[in-house]
Amino acid sequence: MATSESSKQRLLIIASIVIAVLLFVNAFLLFNKYKQDRVIEEQTSQISEADKLKTEMNKQYHEALAELEEMRTSNEELNSIIDGQKEELKKQREKITRLLKNGGNLDRARAEIRNLTAQVAEYVAQVEQLKADNDLLRDENEQLSSKTRELSDNLASERSRNEDLSGQNEELANVKSQLSQERDRLANKVNLASVIKVKSVSVDGMKERNNGKLVKKRYAKNVSQLRICFSTEANDVANPGVEQFFVRIINPIGETMAIEELGSGVLIDKSTGDEVRYTSATESDYNNAETNICFNWNPNMPFQKGKYQVEIYNKGHLAGSGEFSLK
Length: 327
Hints:
Elements: H1 2-70, H2 76-100, H3 106-193, E1 198-208, E2 214-217, E3 225-232, E4 241-250, E5 265-268, E6 275-278, E7 280-286, E8 291-297, E9 306-314, E10 317-326
Antiparallel strand pairs: 1-2, 1-3, 3-8, 4-7, 4-9, 5-6, 9-10
Helix pairs in contact: 1-2, 1-3, 2-3
């Protein structure tokens, strides 16, 4: 009897455990079904929303294409811009379509649709502005054409009158040319008269001793620099003030000694129109009286023995010359 009671209790416990497991399994299955239903519901909602957004996007896209197409004119440049805008809208549409595929990133897709709307508005405004500008240019061209015709008529009448004046202008040009030549001749004459003549030129070879004192040398191998002195004549025609003199030293083989770093350069001989290379330039205050001018030229180069020529220019004219020799 005891054994029978014990068997019943075990069966009752086993049955309870089986019932509990079945209840747990049933609850787990119900929970999973609930989650799956939620997922399916959410996916269905996303797909529905994606379809709605796609429909909205396609509507805006096709309306934009139609509106841009209506704006076409005979202007090839404007039509090219419209084609470019349509291509950009097509790229934006493809981008949104990829985002909406299988209910994808809806928030980003909504943002891109808003961008598409703004882009369409911008393109339409741009095309309208271009059309307005083209209309304005067309009106201006018509006005310009009218003015051109008017100017052409006026030009014809002016040409007739200019032909009458041409003979007079030619005569005036000849008179003007003669006056200009006479003025240049008189100016050159005055310039030549104001040249400060040089009446004597002397040049000494110099060498600097260790104590810094300069002494005269006659042999070329001992000469390191030249002491150039010249005296000017009085000239009442010249204006008093600073006068500039250009000194040209020609070595025994006929070359002008010149070093740009020491002030050498080129002047125009107004008597011949030729370029003359000079060795150095110096300035002096001139008061219409005889003046003695001296300066040193130190080229830091060996001198050749032989006879040297010296030319001095003032106001573009040869004012005097001289010579010296080094043994």
